[in-house]
Model the fold of this input.
Amino acid sequence: MADAAQPEILDRASFLALVRARLWPVPPDPDNAGRAGETLTGKPVPRERLTEDRPAAVLVPVIARPDEVTVLLTQRAAHLRRHASQIAFPGGRVDAGDGSPLDAALREAEEEVGLARRHVEPLGYLDTLRTGTGFSVVPVVGWVEPGFTLVPNPAEVAEVFEVPFRFLMDVGNHQRHMRDGPGGPWEVYAMPYGDRHIWGATARIIRNLYEKLYGEA
Done:
């Protein structure tokens, strides 16, 4: 997919129009979900990295701040067994009591950062992300109007912060790096923002959002 210059996204109406035209209206089939489950060279994730199917969901909260649109991210707690201190979207496994990936994403956002679901307007879905640890992650894009109060859960989250949407959608900020992993070296995206190192699955979801909204249809 060729990169394209992104239009200005300054208000709810223009953003919603773009999302309706570009995102999945329902969660995509994990086996036919587009590029998010591939390496950056277009090759499928090696099967040895997919140990089992673990359904998961994350919320990509797009916030309508008065002066600019932002995206909410978290820094995971340092004591966590998996992905400690990494930058992430609110989210986690789809539990048996969740009716859908959307329910799981909204529940996790409430549990992790205290973002009540009444403040979130679901807009659509990105491609399912198949991770090297066997998770099938469905990213849910949600529009959030100001007026909410966050209460981060210290058992899971060290900090909550926002990054300008314009920064994340600027391909000049999309770096590529090689990392060693199961099955050999592989490429990952990284989007450093100040002292925040956004990379891996989180950066791949952001890149997929860019591709969906501003790449060639």
User: Anything to note?
Assistant: The radius of gyration is 16 Å. The chain has a mean pLDDT of 82. Residues 27-167 form a domain with the Nucleoside Triphosphate Pyrophosphohydrolase fold (CATH 3.90.79.10). The first strand starts at residue 54 and ends at 64.
